[in-house]
Specification:
The structure holds two protein chains of two kinds.
Chain A lengths: L4 E2 L2 H17 L1 H11 L4 H17 L6 H15 L4 H15 L4 E2 L1 H19 L9 H17 L3 H17 L24 H21 L1
Antiparallel strand pairs in A: 1-2
Helix pairs in contact in A: 1-3, 1-4, 1-9, 2-3, 2-9, 3-4, 4-5, 5-6, 6-7, 7-8, 7-9, 8-9
Chain B lengths: L2 E6 L2 H12 L8 E5 L10 H10 L6 E5 L2 H11 L4 H4 L2 E3 L4 H13 L4 H8 L10
Parallel strand pairs in B: 1-2, 1-3, 3-4
Helix pairs in contact in B: 1-5, 2-3, 5-6
The chains are: A mainly alpha, B alpha/beta.
Subunit structure (chain B): Homodimer. The dihydroxyacetone kinase complex is composed of a homodimer of DhaM, a homodimer of DhaK and the subunit DhaL.
Pfam families (chain B): EIIA-man
Organism (chain B): Petrotoga mexicana DSM 14811
Chain lengths: 216, 131
C-alpha cells in the first residue's frame, strides 16, 4: 500500500494564500531578475495575479479541490497580464482536471507534475534547457519519479522534488534563452537566473513545505 | 469577407495599427483591435481578446495579428475555447503585426479568401524594405 496524505480544499486554500504572500513578498526580486533579461514585469504581474487569487478565494468555500484550483487558474489567466498568466493559468487549469479530492499519493503528485509540464509545453512550445519555468518544473517532476522508483517515503520524495526544483532554477543562470522575451537578448541572456524558473521554484517550495508540515 | 483582429501589448499600437490598416480598406472589412491590460498598462487582457473574438464576424474567417509572447499565447489559448468548426476559421498569422494588418486588410477588402490571405501575408515580401 502506498503512502497517502489527506489534502482538503481548506488546506489547498491555505497553500494558495501562502503562495500569494511569497510572490507578493518577492515582487521586487522577480522584477529585478526580469529587468536583467526581459521586460521587468514578472514580479509585478505575478503579484497582481496572486493578490487577486487571494481576494477571490479567501472568503469563499469550495465544493471540492478541483473547483478551487479552477478558480485560481481562471483568475490568473484573466489578471496576470504577461505570458506567465496563460502559462500558469493553463498549468493550474490542467491540475484542476485531475486533482484528487482528498487522498494524495506519490502517483497523484507525479500526475499533477506531468499535466503541468504538458500544459506549459503546449502553449509555450519550450523544452528543458531553454531558460524557462520548465527548467525548474521538469527536474522537480523527474525527482518525484526517481523517488518512487527508489521507494522513498512521500516526505523524502517531496523534499527531493523541492531540491531538484532549486537546482534547476539555479542551473538557468548560464543558459542561453531561446524562448520568451529574453531570447531577443541572445548571448546577453547568459549569466542571469530566469525569473519564470524562479517563480516556479517559489511556488513548488511553498507547496512542498506546506505539505510536509501537514505530515508532521 | 475575412475579418481582422489585431492584438498588441500596447493599446496605442493596437489602435494605431487598426487606424493605419483602415486607410487601405476598399470594402467593408471588420477590423477589431485589442491592446494593453485591463488597467491600460503594457500587456494583454485575455478577457478582452475573448470578447473581441466572440463578437467579430467569423463567417468567412478571421486573421489574427499579434505582437509578442503573451499576446500569442493568449490567442492560442482562447482559440482553443471555440468549437472545432469555428476554430479552424481563426488563423493566427505568422506575420509582423503592422505590415500583416495592412496587407490583410487590402486583400480581405477585395474579397480574397482566408487561406490565400494567410499565405500572402506570411510571405517575406510583406516585410521587404530594401528595394
Amino acid at each position: 500500500m502506498s503512502e497517502k496524505i489527506k489534502v482538503t480544499s481548506e488546506k489547498i486554500k491555505d497553500i494558495f494564500i501562502k503562495i500569494a504572500d511569497v510572490l507578493i513578498e518577492n515582487k521586487n526580486y522577480l522584477t529585478e531578475l526580469d529587468a536583467a533579461i526581459g521586460d521587468a514585469d514578472h514580479g509585478i504581474n505575478m503579484a497582481r495575479g496572486f493578490k487577486k487569487v487571494k481576494e477571490k478565494i479567501e472568503d469563499d468555500s469550495f465544493k471540492n479541490n478541483s473547483d478551487l484550483v479552477k478558480t485560481v487558474a481562471m483568475t490568473l489567466i484573466s489578471t496576470v497580464g504577461g505570458a506567465s498568466g496563460p502559462l500558469y493559468g493553463t498549468a493550474f487549469l490542467n491540475i484542476s482536471k485531475i486533482i484528487p479530492d482528498s487522498d494524495f499519493d506519490i502517483d497523484s503528485f507525479i500526475k499533477i507534475g506531468e499535466t503541468v509540464i504538458e500544459g506549459i509545453q503546449k502553449l509555450g512550445k519550450a523544452q528543458r534547457g531553454e531558460k524557462t519555468m520548465l527548467d525548474t518544473i521538469i527536474p522537480a517532476v523527474n525527482a518525484l519519479r526517481e523517488s518512487k522508483v527508489k521507494g522513498l517515503s512521500l516526505e523524502r520524495a517531496l523534499e527531493e522534488c523541492k531540491k531538484a526544483a532549486e537546482e534547476g532554477m539555479k542551473a538557468t543562470i548560464p543558459l542561453l534563452a531561446t524562448k520568451g522575451r529574453a531570447s531577443y537578448l541572445g548571448e546577453r541572456s547568459k549569466g542571469h537566473q530566469d525569473p519564470g524558473a524562479t517563480s516556479s521554484y517559489l511556488i513548488i517550495k511553498v507547496i512542498v513545505d506546506e505539505l510536509i508540515s501537514e505530515m508532521e | 469577407m475575412v475579418s481582422i483582429l489585431i492584438v498588441s501589448h500596447s493599446k496605442e499600437i493596437a489602435a494605431g495599427t487598426k487606424k493605419l490598416a483602415e486607410q487601405m480598406k476598399q470594402g467593408d472589412v471588420e477590423i477589431l483591435a485589442v491592446g494593453g491590460t485591463k488597467e491600460g498598462e503594457i500587456g494583454t487582457d485575455p478577457d478582452a481578446i475573448y470578447s473581441s473574438l466572440k463578437k467579430i464576424n467569423k463567417e468567412d474567417g478571421v486573421i489574427v495579428l499579434a505582437d509578442l509572447g503573451s499576446a500569442v499565447m493568449n490567442i492560442n489559448m482562447i482559440i482553443d475555447r471555440f468549437d472545432e468548426d469555428i476554430k479552424k476559421k481563426i488563423i493566427l498569422a505568422d506575420a509582423p503585426i503592422v505590415e500583416g494588418a495592412v496587407f490583410a486588410t487590402v486583400e480581405a477588402s477585395v474579397g480574397e479568401k482566408l487561406s490565400n490571405i494567410v499565405s500572402s501575408i506570411e510571405s517575406p515580401n510583406v516585410i521587404k524594405k530594401k528595394q
